[in-house]
From TrEMBL:
InterPro entries (alphabetical): HAD-like_sf, HAD_sf, PGP-like_dom2, S-2-haloacid_dehalogenase
Pfam families: Hydrolase
Keyword Hydrolase: yes
The protein, known as: Putative hydrolase of the HAD superfamily
GO function terms (MF aspect): hydrolase activity
Species name: Marinomonas balearica
Keywords recorded for this protein, A-Z: Hydrolase
Length: 238
């Protein structure tokens, strides 16, 4: 039974709802472009542009907006007009101002852990956007450290643990994305609990063959994640 001194949480779709904001925005974008192409074709093209643009613009609403604009220009062969581009920009502003809806069990989980372990948020995306969501969520009071990173891979986690002088075996990550929150943490010898969300962006999905190489703790909901944490690990001093 490993002793845990630091528990980190992903933010989007782990602490609060996020995917619905993107899904709703995408649908409005599809509606804008359906005079030119059918929805499935627009969706597949947008997904490809988003993935191609991650290395340029990173994750988050701003990168998503630039990908929508690029997709709109490409699929309309430049016929989309300035007013329609303005609609896409306004859509992005609405996304950035969307209310932060905390997921069930999160407040109780954080309150139960506060004071027992160090608590962190490790989230990827645009710095200004993520900081704004943390502020609007009113969850910052629970956390000792908040990190917004450009990507989540084994090096990202190793560098963070080195910076905070956290032993890898004493670190545990809780998140909804197998690709970003779970597998890279297990790869460095740390601990993780997967709390699935009902929908996952295609770029965050992992094939079943890859998953065969991992022993993953999975909890349906944050309350169950806390039960699993207490059943599987111990805290220093307990």
């Amino acid at each position: 039974m490993n002793t845990i001194t630091t528990v980190a949480f992903d933010a989007d779709d782990t602490l609060w709802r996020n995917e619905e904001i993107f899904t709703h925005a995408q649908q409005r974008f599809f509606d804008l472009l359906t005079p030119y192409h059918d929805e499935d074709y627009i969706k597949s093209h947008l997904e490809k542009v988003q993935i191609d643009n991650i290395s340029h613009f990173g994750y988050g609403i701003k990168g998503f907006t630039l990908s929508m604009i690029e997709t709109a220009i490409g699929l309309t062969e430049g016929r989309i007009n300035g007013y329609e581009i303005h609609q896409i920009i306004q859509l992005a502003k609405e996304m950035l101002k969307a209310p932060v809806e905390i997921l069930d069990g999160v407040h109780d989980a954080l309150a139960s852990l506060k004071g027992k372990v160090q608590l962190m948020i490790i989230t990827k995306g645009d710095l200004l956007d993520q900081e704004g969501k943390v502020a609007r969520s009113k969850l910052a009071k629970y956390f000792d450290f908040i990190e917004v990173v450009s990507d989540k891979n084994p090096k990202t986690y190793s560098d963070l643990l080195d910076r905070y002088q956290i032993q890898k075996t004493e670190f545990l990550m809780i998140g909804n994305s197998l690709k970003s929150d779970i597998l890279p943490v297990l790869d460095i010898g740390s601990n993780a609990i997967h709390v699935p969300y009902h929908s996952t962006w295609v770029h965050e999905q992992v094939d079943s063959k890859t998953l065969q190489n991992y022993d993953i703790l999975e909890a349906k909901g944050m309350s169950r994640a806390m039960d699993l944490l207490l059943e599987t690990y111990k805290f220093k001093g307990n």
